[in-house]
Each structure stands twice: as structure tokens, then as C-alpha cells.
Amino acid sequence: MGKLSFLKQKKFYINLLLIVVLSFVLLWLTIKMLNIYTRHGKVFEMPDFSGMTTPEVERAYGKDYNFILIDSIYSKTQAPGTIVQQDPLPGSKVKHGRNVYYIIVAIEPERTNMPNLNNLSLRQALVLLESSGLEVKELIYVDHFARNAICEQRYDGGIIKPGTELIKGSKITLYVGLGPDDKKAKLPSLYGISAQEVQRTLNMAGLNLGNEYFEDNDSIQYMKVCRMDPPQAKGFVKPGTFVNVWYKSSRSFNFDKEQAKVLSEDSARYNAENTPVIDTIIISNDTLTNDPEEEYEDDF
Questions:
Q1: Are 213 and 270 in a shared domain?
Q2: Residue 205 and residue 52: Cα distance in Å, rounded?
Q3: Are 201 and 167 members of one domain?
Q4: Mean pLDDT of all residues in 248-261
Q5: Is the pLDDT of residue 112 over 90?
Q6: With helix as H, strand as E and coil as C, how does 203-272 read?
Q7: Tens of pLDDT along 52-75?
Q8: Where would you tag: which of 48, 231, 238, 297 has the fewest CB atoms within 10 A of its CB?
Q9: What phi and psi values does residue 116 have, to the nearest 5 degrees?
Q10: CB 245 within 8 A of CB 198
Q11: Domain carrying residue 218
Q12: DSSP character for 149?
């Protein structure tokens, strides 16, 4: 019998067919099991956990996600123990079972020591104050030969000595030198800046944060500046000026698309409010004369 005589046997083809069918079945089962294991194609929108406590999120979403606490910060405006930041961000497309890292508001306030800001430049003082976990309450400009030099640091109305223990987040009033030339401060562009960055940006420019107006009801992390007063078109203002700001949610307002329009409207509004009014004098024809001799007669 030849070496290829098995090709004439029916049993060979039956076995070959069984091998092919079993291979396809095994391949299909493998892909199916991988899809089940990896949840292929099944993505979900990440909820917003802001304002919830750890027990609340564990109870409501513990089966869907693995929550990992990474830090805590002190806040006077938010309830202790509540979530203030999360990763992935709300609205992200994720699969169930993934890790969610979050930061909560500390239950016990952290403490820090007041640094010595006297004679530092305003920019240096702000950086040192921020690194110490303290905030600026107000910049008050006073007569002093060194422009933007810190002359005095106060807390709750009284001078505070370096090294004094304070709760993190405490607000410090800084007395700043005006300088000899009474130079004005340039208004920074706040449009599109997040609500968390506004005060620092203004303070760095030698200005104060005035009233804040939130036009959308949304989480603070989505709020961005949509308008400021005085407007940026004004250019320069007196150091220490309070700047009012309005916010909109980045989830409902297209800042990139509307920027040129808003800035143009602010500029037009400022120009209209600051254009001097010129009184128009109407001269009646009865007061005019074509006789030059009569004009000179009135002069004598």
C-alpha cells in the first residue's frame, strides 16, 4: 500500500471533520469566556460621588467598584468625611470592578504654623502661604517705599507672629507696600479659569476676589469664570481692587466657542460706560448775522 493510501479511507475524513469542528468550538468558547471575563463592550458612566461619605458609596456602589482612599483635606465649606475629588472623574466611561481613588474632607482639622512673610515680595509670600496650607483673606495696600513688599500679616484683626499655630485653611490679611509711583495693577484674564484658581490668580496680580455668582447648579469642579467686573478691557485698576466674578458649568457652556463673543461684549460694555458725553450746543439762526459791522459794534 502507498504512503497516501489513507486519503482513500472514509475514516480519515470523518476524523479530520471532527478536528475542524472541535477547533472552531474551542475557539468560540475561548472568545466567549474572554468577553465574559473582561466585560468586553460593556462600559458604564462613572457616577459623581461628591458629597457622599465612604460608607454611603461602599453601600451603594461597593459591588460595582473598588474604592481606595488616598488622602484627606480640610475644608470649612464642605461636610467632614465627604468626598471632594475622585479619579476617574464623573461621566468617564469605565468598566465595573475598576479602582476608584478618592479624597475626602478631613474630620479633624489639620494644623500648621504661621510663616514669616514680612519683607517678602507679594509673590513669594503667596507661595509660602499656600505651601503652609493657609489662604489670603484680603490684600490691603498701604504707603510704603517698597512696592508689593509685605509690611504686616494679620489674623482675626490682630498681628500674628511667625510660628503661631493655626488651623489649615485659615485666612490671613496681608498689608502690602504701594510703592513710590502709585503704579496700577493689570487686570488678569479670568475667562475660562476654574473656580479654584480664581483667587490665587487675582492675588498674584495684587487684586482681591469680590463677590462670586454661580449661574449654574453644578459641582464646583466644573465651574469656570464666564464674566468678570471690572472687565479685562479696562486694562489697569488700583492695587487691591475687588473683582467680582460669574461662573458657568463647563458641562453646559462652551467656553472655547463663546470666548470671543463674551470678551467683545465686555469690551463694548466698558467702552459705552466710559465714553465721555459731549454736550451739543445748538445755535439759532436768529443769533447769526451777516453784517460784520454789527458784530464789531457789539464789542464796543
A1: yes
A2: 36
A3: no
A4: 87
A5: yes
A6: HHCCCEEEEEEECCCCCHHHEEEEEEECCHHHCEECCCCEEEEEEEECCCCCHHHHHHHHHHHHHHHHHH
A7: 999 999 999 999 899 999 988 877
A8: 297
A9: -90, 110
A10: yes
A11: 184-275
A12: B
CATH code, domain carrying 211? 3.30.10.20
Domain count, the chain: 3
φ/ψ (deg, to 5) at 59 = -70, -40
Kindly state whether residue 94 falls inside one of the protein's structural domains: yes
Mean pLDDT, the chain, rounded, equals 85
Query: With bands split at pLDDT 50, 70 and 90, how would you rate the model's confidence at 97?
Result: confident
Residue 289 within any structural domain of the chain? no
Q: Which residues of 207-239 are buried (b: 16+ CB within 10 A; e: fewer)?
A: bbbeeeeeeeebeebbbbbbbbbbbbbbeebeb
- Whether residues 189 and 169 fall in one domain: no
Stated pTM of the model = 0.61
Instruction: For residue 122, give the nearest of 223, 15, 39, 207 by alpha carbon.
Output: 207
Among candidates 171, 165, 164, 169, which has minimal Cα distance to 73? Answer: 169
pLDDT in tens, 141-189: 999 999 999 999 999 999 999 999 999 889 999 999 999 887 999 999 9
